[in-house]
Design brief:
Helix 1 packs parallel to helix 10 and helix 6 packs across helix 10. The protein has 2 domains: about 90 residues, 3-Layer(aba) Sandwich (Rossmann fold), CATH 3.40.50.10860; about 130 residues, Rossmann fold, CATH 3.40.50.720. Strands 1-11-8-7-5-6 form a 6-stranded parallel beta sheet, with helices on both faces. It is globular and about 55 Å long. The protein is of the alpha/beta class. The chain is built from 10 helices and 11 strands. Helices cover about 40% and strands about 15% of the residues. It binds NADPH dihydro-nicotinamide-adenine-dinucleotide phosphate.
Length: about 300
C-alpha cells in the first residue's frame, strides 16, 4: 500500500480562507475586528520566525494584530504587567505569549495570568479543564492538536471516530494530552503511550489512528504501523543533511515517512503536514474568541 499524502498546506489555506471570510462578516455585522496580541521575550531565532508568521497571517485574515517584542532581560513583573494590560484591552481578543520564555521567568505563572477568555493557546487551567471535561463549546483548544483533528477528519472523511483505536505517542500538556482528549471527544478508543510504555511497537500496531508527538526523529518505523492506519506526525526535528552540503540540515518528523507510507492509508509529511495547521488554527481560535465576545455564534473549524 502507498499512503495518500495529507496536505497540511492546502488544508491550512482552506482554514485561513474561511477565517478571512468569516472575519469580514463579523466586521460587517458587528463592527468588531478580531484582535490578536503576540508577546515575545528574547531573541530565540525559531521563535522570532514563528512570531513574524503569526503577525503576517493575522493581517491577511483582516485582524487587528500587535506584536510586543521584549528584551531577554525583561523581568517577570514587567511581563505580568503587560499581560494584565492586554487582558483589559477591549480591542484584543486573543493573547499569545510565545514559549519558551527565558529561564528567569516562571512560564506557568505567565500562562495562568492570561485571561481564560483570551487564552487562544488553550494552556490556562480553565481551558485545559474544559477540554478534559468535554466543554468544547466554550473551551479554547491548543492549536496543534486542533489542527491535527482537522487533518484527521479530512483523511477519514468523518467527524465521528466510533470503533476506531487511536494511539497517541507522547503525553505532553501542549500536544499529546490535548490530542488524546480531542480523539476521545470524537469517540475513538484512545491509548496514550510515552517513554515508560512497554513494547511500544506492539501498542502502535493496534492503532487505526496513530499520532506521533515525541520529538525523536523518525522513531516510528514501518512495521510499527497497522496496514491501512492513518498516521499524523506532529514531530518537527532538525537533522544533519550532508547530501545538501556541509553543515546543512533538514526537517523530519517522529515517523520514518518512507517506511510508514508503505503501510498507512494516509500520512502527514514533515514539513507540510501538521506544521502549517498550527498557525491557521491560531487564527481560527482568535476569530472564535472575538465572536464569543460579540455574542455571535462562532464558525466551526
Ligand atoms: P515533549 O518533549 O514535551 O514531550 C515528548 C513526549 O514524548 C513525552 O511525553 C515523552 O514521554 C514521549 N517520549 C519521549 N521519548 C519517547 C520514547 N522513546 N518512546 C515513547 N515516548 C517517548 O514534546 P512536545 O509534545 O512539546 O512535542 C513533540 C514533538 O512535536 C516535537 O518534535 C515538537 O517539535 C513537535 N511540535 C510540533 C508542533 C507543530 O506545530 N507541528 C507544535 C508543538 C510541538 P515522557 O512523558 O514519559 O517523558
Amino acid at each position: 500500500m502507498s499512503a495518500a499524502v495529507i496536505d497540511g498546506k492546502s488544508e491550512a489555506a482552506k482554514v485561513v480562507a474561511e477565517v478571512t471570510s468569516q472575519t469580514a462578516k463579523l466586521i460587517a455585522d458587528t463592527g468588531i475586528v478580531p484582535g490578536i496580541a503576540v508577546v515575545i521575550v528574547g531573541e530565540d531565532p525559531a521563535s522570532q520566525v514563528y512570531v513574524r508568521s503569526k503577525g503576517k497571517r493575522a493581517l491577511e485574515c483582516g485582524f487587528h494584530s500587535v506584536t510586543h517584542k521584549l528584551p531577554e532581560d525583561t523581568s517577570e513583573e514587567t511581563l505580568l504587567a503587560l499581560v494584565d494590560e492586554l487582558n483589559n484591552d477591549e480591542v484584543i481578543h486573543g493573547i499569545l505569549v510565545q514559549l519558551p520564555l527565558p529561564d528567569h521567568i516562571d512560564e506557568g505563572k505567565i500562562i495562568q495570568a492570561v485571561s481564560p477568555d483570551k487564552d487562544v493557546d488553550g494552556f490556562h487551567f480553565i481551558n485545559v479543564g474544559k477540554l478534559g471535561t468535554g466543554e468544547l463549546a466554550t473551551a479554547f483548544v491548543p492549536c496543534t492538536p486542533a489542527g491535527s483533528m482537522v487533518l484527521l477528519r479530512q483523511a477519514l472523511g468523518k467527524q465521528d471516530f466510533s470503533g476506531l483505536n487511536a494511539v497517541v505517542v507522547g503525553r505532553s500538556n501542549i500536544v499529546g494530552k490535548p490530542i488524546a482528549n480531542l480523539l476521545l471527544g470524537a469517540n475513538a478508543t484512545v491509548t496514550i503511550a510515552h517513554s515508560r510504555t512497554k513494547d511500544l511497537p506492539s501498542v502502535t500496531r493496534g492503532a487505526d489512528i496513530l499520532v506521533a508527538a515525541v520529538g525523536r526523529s523518525q522513531m516510528i518505523k514501518g512495521d510499527w504501523v497497522k496496514p491501512g492506519a492513518v498516521v499524523i506526525d506532529v514531530g518537527i526535528n532538525r537533522i544533519p543533511a550532508p547530501e545538501k552540503g556541509e553543515g546543512k540540515t533538514r526537517l523530519v518528523g517522529d515517523v520514518d515517512y518512507d517506511e510508514c507510507a508503505e503501510a498507512a492509508s494516509a500520512i502527514t509529511p514533515v514539513p507540510g503536514g501538521v506544521g502549517p495547521m498550527t498557525i491557521a488554527m491560531l487564527m481560527a481560535t482568535t476569530l472564535i474568541a472575538a465572536c464569543r465576545k460579540a455574542g455571535v455564534e462562532p464558525p466551526a473549524f
